[in-house]
Amino acid sequence: MEKILLVLWPLFALIAMGFALRRTALFSVDFWPSAEKLNYFILFPALLMNSLATAPLDNPKLPFLASAIFFILAVSSLLVLVNKYLFKITIGRFGAYIQGVTRFNTYLGLAIIADLFGTEGIAIAAVIMAILVPSTNIIAVLSLSAGKKVSIQQLFLPIIKNPLIISCFLGILLNLSPIGLPFGSDQLLRLLAAASLPLGLICIGGALQTATLKNEFKPIIVTTLIRLLAMPSLAIFMAYLFSLPELETVLLAIFFSIPTAPTAYILTRQLKGDSQLMAGIITLQTITAILTLPLVLTLVMH
User: Fold this and answer.
1) CATH number for the domain running over 2-22+29-206+218-300
2) 0.70 exceeded by the pTM?
């Protein structure tokens, strides 16, 4: 428990720093969107590409890991869908709920894994993300577009243009090709990647919107408890069902016990969903994870 707390508190300190800095006059309003774009389009894709280019794609357990992930997403999405019809939830709100349950904060997840398991953990985490990033983005777009007259282009363009999906694809291609990362390009990617996680965590704090918690606190807290406690329980069960090794089990539990992605707010707003509800879910999950993450990690690592 002590080791876990020592790993987690600096990460949440960076989030708190971002939250505080956003509310000072030290940086202009334009700084935050620019910092988020730099990380989202350049720094974080560099981390993913570098990790996947050297990831153990010949691991015989990868098909089982992928199957476990798809089952977790299928079960959780189905449960949210059932509740949509039971409680007559509108499409805009349904999209926010399903993202609150299935999507994940990539920066926080990889920062935890890097500190706990180093390069070995990052390599496997990159493979998990190569499966999770496109899958959760497809689920998000479909859930926010359900029942609307949406063209194939409108449906798949946000997914195809996603820099995280593109970098995952390029990293896998480099891994499978004889080219690899030649002429010191691996060092360049490592330097870019090193800046990604701390900047990402600070931007998470800057994006928190505590004012949104005043509205609809009950559905927000229910979604938070499902995401931070029920989802890791389901992940651990699926890992056991598919006989995954200990490291893969822990990493799977981490990805499904971290709060939802801050970018879910942007996607929800773009597709005319309930962006205020989404902002509330993101904020409460990030704050509550300070308490739930040490508990989940202690249970899964012992």
Assistant:
1) 1.20.1530.20
2) yes
